[in-house]
Design a protein that fits this description.
By secondary structure, this protein is mainly alpha-helical. The chain contains 4 helices and no strands. The mean pLDDT is 87.
């Protein structure tokens, strides 16, 4: 198993851990950023890690990786509701997750030198 796969698995676990924290317990950074931007960046990182773990140059767009990241984002939104953290699922957060994963995958495909 390569380090990218381990990194992707650990990152997915981190995402679920942070989703388990109630919004009142999340650290305040002092920087005002839309939560949609946070979701976009969070899942762009997941897309990059997914490309590192499973991407293959020259084989077309990795629709399976996009589907994985998108489904994980939807499950993450549901997870927030299931664990009772006081946070609720938001379809627009899931949309930002999918958009972020798409951006991360595109950036990986364009700039990754294998």
């Amino acid at each position: 198993m390569n380090m990218w796969k381990i990194g992707l698995g650990l990152y997915c676990a981190l995402v679920l851990y942070v989703s388990s924290i109630s919004s009142g317990e999340l650290p305040k950074t002092g920087v005002i950023v839309s939560d949609k931007v946070i979701h976009l960046v969070e899942y762009a990182i997941m897309g990059i890690l997914g490309w590192g773990a499973f991407g293959k140059r020259g084989s077309g767009f990795p629709w399976g990786l996009l589907a994985f990241c998108t489904c994980f984002g939807i499950a993450d939104e549901c997870w927030q509701d299931w664990v009772g953290s006081g946070r609720s699922p938001d379809v627009w957060d899931a949309a930002a997750d999918a958009a972020g994963a798409f951006i991360g995958l595109i950036l990986s495909m364009v700039f990754w030198k294998r």
